[in-house]
Specification:
Elements (H helix, E strand, L loop, with lengths): L2 H8 L4 H17 L11 H7 L2 H6 L7 H9 L18 H13 L6 E2 L14 E5 L6 H16 L1 H4 L1 E6 L2 E4 L2 E4 L7 E6 L14
Antiparallel strand pairs: 1-2, 2-6, 3-4, 3-6, 4-5
Length: about 200
C-alpha cells in the first residue's frame, strides 16, 4: 500500500465529525453576510446533526446525557398576561395570584378585586373573589376545590394568607370549617407585597 493510499485513508471523516465542524464554518460565513453572529442559533444545529449519545459513542464530545435531558425538560418561563380581574388598586402578589388563576382556569369569567368593605382586605388590594359559575353543581364545587388546591400549592409564590370556600377557612397550615359562607366564589387573600410601580413582570 503506497503513501498516497494511506493519506487518503487518514483524510476520511465520519459524518458526525463533519456535522460538528460545519457549525463554526456556517457561523463565520453568515457573519459576513449582514447577519449578526449573536443571532446565530448554532447549538440546535449540533443537536439535529447528532444526539448526545451518538457524539459520546463517536468520541467527539464528553456530553453528560442525563444533564442534557434535564435541560431539555426544563419548563419555559413565560410572562403571565392580564387576566379577567380588574387590577387597579391591587397589590403585586394579589395581581400575580389573579393572573395565575386566570391562566390556569380559563373557565373563570369573573374575578373581583378592590371594592368597599368593612374589612381591610378588599379595599387595600389584598383580596380576590374568584366567581364560580353554577357554584352549587358538582362541577362548580369541584372547580372551586381545584382553585383552593391551586392557591395552596402556590402559597409561597402568592404570599398567600388564606382562602375561603363553602364555609371553610383554608390557610397553608390547614383548614377550619364552619361559619365562613362563600358558597358562590372562592375568596383569596394575599399579604400584598406593595403596590405596583408599573415596571413589574408577572411570571407563571
Amino acid at each position: 500500500m503506497g503513501r498516497h493510499e494511506l493519506a487518503r485513508q487518514r483524510r476520511r471523516w465520519s459524518p458526525i465529525a463533519l456535522a460538528v465542524m460545519a457549525v463554526p464554518v456556517a457561523a463565520a460565513m453568515t457573519a459576513g453576510g449582514g447577519v449578526s453572529p449573536v443571532a446565530q442559533d448554532t447549538a440546535p444545529v449540533i443537536e439535529r446533526a447528532a444526539s448526545p449519545a451518538t457524539l459520546v459513542a463517536a468520541g467527539i464530545a464528553p456530553v453528560d446525557t442525563a444533564q442534557w435531558r434535564a435541560v431539555e425538560a426544563e419548563p419555559v418561563v413565560q410572562a403571565l398576561p392580564v387576566g379577567v380581574a380588574a387590577e387597579s388598586g391591587l397589590q403585586v402578589k394579589t395581581i400575580l395570584a389573579a393572573r395565575a388563576i386566570s391562566a390556569a382556569f380559563p373557565e373563570i369569567l369573573s374575578i373581583g378585586g378592590v371594592r368597599p368593605d368593612s374589612l381591610r382586605w378588599h379595599p387595600n388590594g389584598l383580596a380576590l373573589d374568584v366567581m364560580i359559575g353554577d357554584p352549587n353543581s358538582a362541577e362548580g364545587i369541584a372547580l372551586g376545590n381545584e382553585i383552593v388546591a391551586f392557591a395552596m400549592r402556590n402559597a409561597d409564590r402568592f404570599a398567600l394568607q388564606d382562602c375561603i370556600w363553602r364555609d371553610t377557612y383554608y390557610t397553608p397550615g390547614g383548614a377550619q370549617p364552619g361559619g365562613y359562607g362563600h358558597y358562590d366564589h372562592v375568596h383569596v387573600t394575599t399579604k400584598g407585597g406593595g403596590y405596583p410601580t408599573g415596571s413589574e413582570v408577572y411570571f407563571q
